[in-house]
Amino acid sequence: METHAKLPIEIIILIIEHLTPDAAGPQPILPAVSIITKSLLAWTTVSKATYPIASRLIWQNCLYIDTRERIDAFREFASRRSVITGRTPCEAYGPTRMFLSPFSSVLGYKGSTYSPESFPGPPYLSPGGSLGQVSEDDDPDAPYEPVFPEYVPDDVVQSRLHDLQTVQNVREVLLTLAPVLKTLVVDMPLRSLYPEDDHQGVRKLLREGFEALAVIEEIVSVEDELYLATNRDYTEAQVWTRWPKLKRMALYNILAEEETWRNMLLCPQLEVGVFTRADSIDAFSEHRDVKREWTKAWTASTSIRSSTEGLYQGPEITMAFCNQRSELPDFDKLVPQWHTMDPENRICILTVPTDSAYDQQTNGEDGIDDPIGVSQEWIRDRALAGTLWEDVKRENVFMSSKREQEI
Questions:
Q1: For the chain, how many structural domains are there in total?
Q2: Confidence band of 129 (pLDDT split at 50, 70, 90)
Q3: DSSP state at residue 78
């Protein structure tokens, strides 16, 4: 008589837990097409014993909201108590991270081209950059071919933010996840509709949702500087200054000025700011002394004067300015005075090219065809792969340093 050995449930749970990337490495946000997501979803249907662990791992790793239909379904799911656990997902599974791009399917807009199967990612990926299955047509030895995103400009009439139902769903999801959401990657056209043209009040709804994120630690805004103004006079505080636990942020096209540095100093735990195509910081900004501006902002905000005039003694901060290589600022001439002002390099400045993957044949003599799209794709892909904060350190072409000690 043939018998079949049965694995103990403890072994099965270990197998399920090892489907996701190791906690010590990069933490990607996985889309529905990922083989990992599909495997976890399958495990939720096996038994009551595997449902909780598989559901928790989906909650922690796979909140990838890229269509209006998904935000609608997720809003309902996130507020509903499970018939198995008797609790809501927030109560049952705790901290999570999310990719939020629900307007990608509105008006035919094409959103992120990212998938963990195609992005040439971090060390934990299998050969060829695959996190799961690879198409039979793929050549693992073929060079990486960059995919240019399709840029579709918005106007007042065609703004995707006019989709009131989706905006309301975004607000409800953010309010529901506020107690547990630690990382958020936002790819939304927040600058496609200005306050003076917002006759439905959608900007107020969005701001209410984002303001509630009291425990968020990482924010990435792909398309803008997380523009959530609701008044025409633009006097409201930046939403991210209301997040006391914010540690790392990446914003697109932020205005690089002392007011921004003062706002950053309002975030007591902020460690890193990554700024893609920042306004007023480019190849023509050789006289912009970012360290001196930051020091001035810190001095003004604290009323502290150093015993050594001009010596920075404030909190440590890393600022990475990211752009296509030809538009990166050149800070080399400032290094000697930076060594005097900030000998310990407590203000670490980096410049990072966003077009390194695009060779001269792709770029053409005049550079890449869509520097905005390429820069946004660069930040989005790394944020979704969970490698952004380390990539700016690995891929930089300039990094400020400590002053060498005299012997």
A1: 1
A2: very low
A3: H
